[in-house]
Amino acid sequence: IASESQPDVYYPSFQGPSQLQCVERAPHFDCDDIIYTADNGATQWFTRRGTLQGSPAWRDILGDNVLWFVSEREYRIIPSEAKLTTFYTNFEGPSQLECAHVHPRMDCDIVVWTPESGSETKFKRRSPFQGSPAWKDISSDMILWFVEEKMYRVIPSESQPDRFYPSFKGPAQLQCQAAVQRFDCDHVIWTTADGHTRRYMRRAPLQGSPAWKHVMGDDILWFAHEAEYRIIPSESHPNRFFTSFEGPAQLKCADEQVSRFDCNEVLWTNKKQQYRFLRRSQFLGSPAWTESRQGMLLWFNTEWTISPSEKDIQRYFPLKLEQLACVGSALLQEEDNDVSESRINSSSAAMFDITMVDERTSSKSGPALVSDRTLSVEDLEEGLGFTDSVQHEAVHLRSEADLATSALIEAVDDSVKNMEVAQWMGDELGDRCAKMLSRLDDVREQDGKLLARSEADPLFPPMLESIAPPGFMCNSDQNRQQLEPCERYNTWGSIAATFKNAEDIPRCIAAALRDGKCMMKNTCSRTIKVSWLSNPLKGDPIAVSSFPDPDGQCRKKFPEQVFANWAAMEQEADIAECIAAAVKDGKCMMK
């Protein structure tokens, strides 16, 4: 019947007891926190709020929704306390509910999130957010939030607390990071996995965190947000970094080595020869001394080093500490008294007659081939040799033809005034050119065989060695103004896959410029590689990647379609969030 006052009015749609059945009372959840899991996997966390009209109720900790045990018989989720008769029809009952256990508290300054994809994100403790503990991503606006100290969520930014990343599966993916070793020194040396070294000197903090600049380049060693060490290409690219840097285990302070000699004169003793150096002004952050006759430079690069001059530091000779001593020290007092000033000067005067020549590769037909290795102390018995520094585009020889090419180029560059060298080049040019061109025959010979068997190309393997040695910087534009780690280009694929990836960018990527940052989303389900980005964009329509873009690279390198994609997404989201519509009397009604 319609009501107690209308016993004679009834519903004709009711057809009798065959449409009735007894309903068991819903189970009672006697817990403070309850998780509701929808059919699509989305979850809501409700915490006890007391009673509503005498029945137990729990409120959504991120919104106004209320889980209500109506008359202790039926569970409903209602929009708010003010709308008791309105409820969500997609809630199917207690089978979608379970008592929740409060997540364990992460009591540390740095928290690492490792999602199922495996790429780590580091969060650093920040001030509480809406009264609850929070940590901010050190590279973006993302926040790890301990909502009401009950559950963790990863949200895109402080301004979007109601949006979250579904790829975050809870505290099992979180762990505290152990304290990172702090380097409180002015000079730090990075030693790469293959033994190359670079020295960094303290500079002004970068974004409030300690930083050191490479003494001969733009790259910066940065204690990013005092959470992790990174080596970045320059101050303008704080979100790009060298993948060859493996962390603080490869670093060491060098202050003690740099300040080892505090005197006006230093004597270098090598077997039967000695060279006197006088103090000059600092050079690239290092104490320095100059040899008075030939102008050789004694300074600290990543070890104590002699270079031919201040303008020619790309060539150097590494020294052993026991070969150096301040004039007047105990070491010098023990030297043979026969050492005289004239002997010191005459030895240094003869040095540059054999600069860059390795006598052991000499032949009767002409001067020696140039070696790209660092000469040992024993080489000094035949003459002083300098080698190109690995930080300054050293030649890495890979074949006999390359060796010949290197010899010719460096001989022309360093000894073109030497008539003997010039005559040798004329006599030998034909033979050496023939050796260089013979590589083309090797390519032709192997290509037919490899193509027939679909095998790899040993002359140009899809590896970093085909691009550059590890740790080297590559020019990323035609004007040679921007340097980036060469490892960044170590991405290989078939031509078909490469073209498909290029087609995916305008179809799947959405991008926009916001507050000087390039914001990006990959709306497709598969990972997409963008050649000029250091990391691929994983398929996740909710996740947003970003990088600072002061020089407008985002707009220059992305096609216009990606920006149209972002605008379309924003429009679609605005419509879904703000527009209400219904069809009434043949009209579309909208609010």
How widely separated are the two ends?
Answer: 37 Å
Helix proportion of residues, in percent?
A: 10-25%
SS element count, helices: 8
Number of strands: 33
Q: Mind summarizing the main beta sheet?
A: 8 strands, antiparallel
Structural class: alpha+beta
How much of the sequence lies in strands comes to 25-35%
Spatial extent as radius of gyration: 36 Å
Question: Segments where pLDDT lies below 50 for 5+ residues?
Answer: 330-428
List the helices and strands and how they pair.
Blueprint: E1 33-37, E2 43-52, E3 55-60, E4 66-70, E5 74-78, E6 97-99, E7 110-113, E8 121-129, E9 132-137, E10 143-147, E11 151-155, E12 174-176, E13 187-191, E14 197-206, E15 209-214, E16 220-224, E17 228-232, E18 251-253, H1 255-258, E19 265-270, E20 273-283, E21 286-291, E22 297-300, E23 304-307, E24 315-318, E25 324-326, H2 330-333, H3 341-349, E26 387-388, H4 400-415, H5 419-453, E27 473-475, E28 483-485, H6 495-508, E29 509-514, E30 517-522, E31 540-548, H7 553-557, H8 560-578, E32 581-584, E33 587-590
Helix pairs in contact: 4-5, 6-8
Descriptive report:
The structure is a single chain. With 591 residues, the protein is α+β, with helices and mostly antiparallel strands. It has 8 helices and 33 strands. The longest helix has 35 residues, at 419-453. It is elongated, with a radius of gyration of 36 Å.
Structure summary:
The protein is of the alpha+beta class and about 600 residues long.
Which terms would index this structure?
591 residues; alpha+beta; 8 helices; 33 strands; 30% strand
